[in-house]
Automatic annotation (TrEMBL):
Species assigned in the record: Actinomycetospora chlora
Name of this chain's protein: EamA family transporter
Keyword annotations from UniProtKB, A to Z: Membrane, Transmembrane, Transmembrane helix
Pfam families reported in the protein's UniProt record: EamA
InterPro entries to which the protein is assigned, alphabetical: EamA_dom, EmrE-like
Lineage: Bacteria, Bacillati, Actinomycetota, Actinomycetes, Pseudonocardiales
Length: 307
């Protein structure tokens, strides 16, 4: 793959990381205005489902038809990686800063590594184990435990829940391009399923589904509430997933996944700029360790092990 063909793919992958990274700051602005995490998740998923309806219609018009197992994959994808991950991540953002919540979620490759080790009894490579240890050390710095900072246990548990859902996303994404449905179908159909699930959970009273029309604050600018919803749905979901799919097609899944780590950087910078969440030097050092650990694990393990 030459430089001329790689450069556009890298640009698209960075755009995807930037778009994904702003989901936390947009969500934080809505949460501060009185929205509940499930309501933010519903706004994100429902908005994405509407925006992805047109490209989905194009795919169906070209003659694509679901095969055995496709519907089940879409339902599971909507339940776990979309609905589950969004509710857990936004709930974590309600208790922790955007950067800390995202870094906890990003420990998913370590969780997936442990699950694969327990299932196959195959000992990971030394570099992989070093990466897992590095991630643990980085997480301790991110939580600032060494300096005696108070750790919000509820926020950490929500973040770990998001990590479990992200690990499921890695496993389910392996279906794309093989016998599974196309990525666009999986994302759009999953958004519809995820929206329905979050709405039902809210109506049933299992989780609070609260939204307000109060203005939100973004980088010192008082904006109407719908700016946050459009941002999290259009920019951080529809555009993010579509550019992510395009990046994988141009770069391949492994290189695209490495570039995708830029999401953490964009999330931290976005939270600093939009909602004034400034990380400490210790947390920045921990974040660097966690990202380096994930990169090391992805480099050391075969693609099919860590998606």
């Amino acid at each position: 793959m030459g430089r001329s063909s790689t450069a556009p793919g890298l640009a698209i992958a960075l755009l995807s990381g930037f778009s994904f990274g702003l989901a936390g700051p947009f969500a934080a602005s809505l949460l501060a205005a009185g929205w509940s995490p499930p309501a933010v998740a519903l706004g994100r998923l429902a908005g994405a489902a509407v925006l992805l309806a047109v490209p989905l219609g194009v795919v169906l018009a070209r003659g694509w038809r679901p095969r055995a197992g496709h519907r089940r994959a879409v339902v599971v994808y909507g339940l776990v990686p979309l609905a589950g991950a969004q509710v857990c991540y936004f709930s974590a953002v309600g208790h922790l800063s955007v950067g800390v919540a995202l870094l906890i979620e990003y420990t998913a490759p370590v969780l997936l590594l442990g699950w694969t080790w327990a299932r196959t009894r195959a000992r990971p490579r030394p570099a992989t184990l070093a990466g897992a240890a590095l991630a643990a050390a980085g997480l301790v710095l991110v939580l600032d435990v060494a300096r005696g900072a108070a750790v919000d246990v509820v926020g950490v548990l929500w973040g770990l829940g998001a990590a479990v859902c992200l690990a499921a996303y890695f496993r389910l994404s392996a279906l794309v391009g093989g016998d599974g449905p196309p990525a666009l179908v999986l994302t759009a159909g999953g958004a519809v399923v995820g929206s329905a699930v979050v709405a039902l959970v809210g109506v049933a009273g299992l989780l609070p589904l609260t939204a307000t029309t109060a203005p939100i604050d973004l980088a010192g600018w008082t904006a109407p509430w719908w700016v946050g919803v459009v941002g999290v749905a259009a920019l951080s979901t529809a555009l993010a997933y579509l550019t992510g799919i395009a990046a994988v097609r141009r770069l391949g899944s492994r290189l695209a996944s490495f570039v995708g780590l830029s999401e953490v950087l964009f999330a931290v910078l976005g939270a600093w700029w939009l909602v004034a969440q400034r990380p400490t030097a210790t947390q920045v050092a921990g974040g660097v360790l966690v990202v380096a650990a994930i990169a090391l694990i992805r480099w050391a393990e075969p693609p099919e092990t860590v998606a």
